[in-house]
Design the sequence.
């Protein structure tokens, strides 16, 4: 709580990395319920503009090195839940 939280995600792809590569981060609260997209990346980062993580997610990854990590600023106990990282690099999924 209070410090930046790093959420790491690494990937490997058999296809060359291109601007078609997409990274999605989704979140499900600990109590369950609706999944929400908190971040996506396609050539440039697109942090969420709505919801509890608005203005608190930053891109710290580097797709050229297989890193799709993000950071959460000022995490709170209420942020507890499951975070999912999904990387698609067409034609490789």
Sequence:
């Amino acid at each position: 709580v209070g410090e930046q939280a790093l959420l790491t995600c690494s990937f490997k792809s058999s296809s060359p990395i291109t601007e078609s590569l997409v990274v999605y981060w989704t979140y499900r609260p600990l109590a369950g319920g609706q999944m929400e997209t908190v971040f996506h990346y396609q050539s440039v980062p697109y942090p969420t503009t709505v919801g509890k993580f608005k203005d608190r997610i930053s891109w710290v990854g580097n797709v050229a090195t297989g890193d799709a990590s993000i950071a959460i600023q000022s995490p709170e106990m209420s942020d507890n839940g499951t975070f999912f990282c999904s990387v698609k690099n067409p034609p490789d999924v």
